[in-house]
């Protein structure tokens, strides 16, 4: 069923993007952007529902892999994918990776990318202007991904509930109320955790903390150069 729904959505999004890239259609660019934004919102809702259903069906045994991956290219490519969503908006999207981050870690790169993407998407939804900064650093036996924004912030009364399913900070901002739930469950499945701090009208900071495990074989020099 998911394939039957996703395929036409990808077709709509791909066609809208091709039309938006056509200089002859500059007058329709805003309309095409509206089509793209609506399609991406629908795709996000679909993915959230499918992911949440799979997680609930699997219970605590969420399927995650444990393989070597390079954190720097993973983060940079994720930020590159997200950068298109801030074009034309008064938002600065930035990243900072600590110098002591190792070239490679053990984990599930696909799931880690999913968590980071969810956190960045959440920040974009609630930030009208200012900044969104993604910081990656080590902290003892853990490595951390911190996503900080200058958005509307979260009411303290709701902060303790935001990782529960279908909880929405603001109904005006859209979403399913599942993105943070999915991210939290995935973080736990990978031996980590997701936490948040927030100040209303100032902004929020979400932190994904994961266990620090190095690959059995150290990075080769060629790989190290690619990570820098």
From TrEMBL:
<dbReference type="InterPro" id="IPR036097">
    <property type="entry name" value="HisK_dim/P_sf"/>
</dbReference>
<dbReference type="GO" id="GO:0005524">
    <property type="term" value="F:ATP binding"/>
</dbReference>
<protein>
    <recommendedName>
        <fullName>histidine kinase</fullName>
        <ecNumber>2.7.13.3</ecNumber>
    </recommendedName>
</protein>
<keyword id="KW-0597">Phosphoprotein</keyword>
<keyword id="KW-0067">ATP-binding</keyword>
<dbReference type="GO" id="GO:0000155">
    <property type="term" value="F:phosphorelay sensor kinase activity"/>
</dbReference>
<dbReference type="InterPro" id="IPR036890">
    <property type="entry name" value="HATPase_C_sf"/>
</dbReference>
<dbReference type="InterPro" id="IPR004358">
    <property type="entry name" value="Sig_transdc_His_kin-like_C"/>
</dbReference>
<keyword id="KW-0808">Transferase</keyword>
<feature type="domain" description="Histidine kinase">
    <location>
        <begin position="1"/>
        <end position="214"/>
    </location>
</feature>
<keyword id="KW-0418">Kinase</keyword>
<dbReference type="Pfam" id="PF00512">
    <property type="entry name" value="HisKA"/>
</dbReference>
<dbReference type="InterPro" id="IPR003594">
    <property type="entry name" value="HATPase_dom"/>
</dbReference>
<dbReference type="InterPro" id="IPR005467">
    <property type="entry name" value="His_kinase_dom"/>
</dbReference>
<dbReference type="Pfam" id="PF02518">
    <property type="entry name" value="HATPase_c"/>
</dbReference>
<dbReference type="InterPro" id="IPR003661">
    <property type="entry name" value="HisK_dim/P_dom"/>
</dbReference>
<keyword id="KW-0547">Nucleotide-binding</keyword>
């Amino acid at each position: 069923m998911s394939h039957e729904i996703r395929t036409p959505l990808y077709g709509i999004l791909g066609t809208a993007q091709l039309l938006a890239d056509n200089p002859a259609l500059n007058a329709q660019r805003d309309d095409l952007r509206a089509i793209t934004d609506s399609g991406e919102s629908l795709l996000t809702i679909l993915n959230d529902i499918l992911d949440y259903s799979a997680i609930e069906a699997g219970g605590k045994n969420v399927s995650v892999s444990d393989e070597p991956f390079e954190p720097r290219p993973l983060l940079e490519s994720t930020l590159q994918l997200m950068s298109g969503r801030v074009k034309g908006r008064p938002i600065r999207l930035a990243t900072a990776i600590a110098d002591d981050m190792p070239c490679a870690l053990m984990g599930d790169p696909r799931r880690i990318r999913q968590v980071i993407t969810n956190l960045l998407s959440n920040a974009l939804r609630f930030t009208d202007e200012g900044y969104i900064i993604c910081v990656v650093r080590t902290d003892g036996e853990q490595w951390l991904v911190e996503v900080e924004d200058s958005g509307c912030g979260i009411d303290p009364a709701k902060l303790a509930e935001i990782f529960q399913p279908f909880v929405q900070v603001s109904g005006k901002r859209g979403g399913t109320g599942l993105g943070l739930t999915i991210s939290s469950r995935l973080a736990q499945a990978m031996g980590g955790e997701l936490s948040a701090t927030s100040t209303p009208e100032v902004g929020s900071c979400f932190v994904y903390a994961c266990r620090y495990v190095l690959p059995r074989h150290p990075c080769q020099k060629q790989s190290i150069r690619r990570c820098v």
